[in-house]
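Posting for a labmate who doesn't have an account.
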Amino acid sequence: MVWEQRWHPLRREWVVVSSHRNERPWQGERVGRGDAPRALPPYIQDCYLCPGNVRSSGQRNDHYSGVFVFDNDHPCVGPGAPMELAAPPGIYRNRPASGCARVVCFTPRHDLTLAQLPAAELMRLLEVLQAQYRDLGSRDDVRHVLVFENKGDVVGVSNPHPHCQIYATNFVFKTIELEAEAQAAHLAEHGRPLFQEILAAEQADGRRLVVRRDQALSFIPYFARYPYETFVAPRATRPSLAHLSASELADFAAVLRETLIRLDNLWHLSFPYVMVLHQAPTDGSPHPGFHFHIQIHPPLRKPGLLKYLAGPEIGGGNFLNDAAPEETAAELQAVASVHYTEGG
């Protein structure tokens, strides 16, 4: 049993780990078998992300055969956002929500997930995301390029066709801003990158490591806020995915792919998650010590049981993790590295 507070150095906050709570009686809502496998066809005629189909905007998708990128038809930030805003009263403030929002379809296959993509296709996807970061990040009006995938009904995905989104914004998202500040401050004070300290601690302990390659690794961090929260990172400090060399990218892709496979294999279901690429802002500042990595946040703590954000998280501002990271990492280590749909 683990029952203690653990410091999250990237977010500069405490996480309460109380693993005994994971066995508490539960009479609340269940979500069945999470995202239990559904027999989806490779193409659906009315799917607005499948090749050649018409989207809600009236635009028709290309008859694509690989990765397909297009500007989001319903953007939260975009060039059409009003630039001249009336000032709000009193202490309130506002500012334009400009930038660019894009959708990236991983594959024309409607029935696959990122974990099921062949290795070569995953590499190609990451290369496209490298190019998107360079392209969007070079714009004068873009201060940050956020890439994320929402996967599964329980995280509110409106379309199961495998895709991620890109928000290139005129502001830096708060989490990235906090991480950039924490990493710059640590480097200035100690002369060592903060994330390198995290990697050294995880490798010295070893219990929370999930997948390892020469130039990349994944782990459930000591300070995980969700039971199966997993970090995927290059071993070298690079500010973004776009800064990885070809060999670094190959190892990173292999680690990411196996990590996602192991999550699926845990309960033989398509594991839901929110996956975010933590990349340095593109606002022209140096951001010393920023270490690119991916954070995977699965909302399940057991089959069918969600990790709900309740009073402590929403009201109090600190996470409670009902599982010990050492125990959940051991579960992922124990499952096969071949996807269960392929006999793993």
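Reply:
Got it, the structure tokens are right above this. DSSP finds six helices and 14 strands in the chain.
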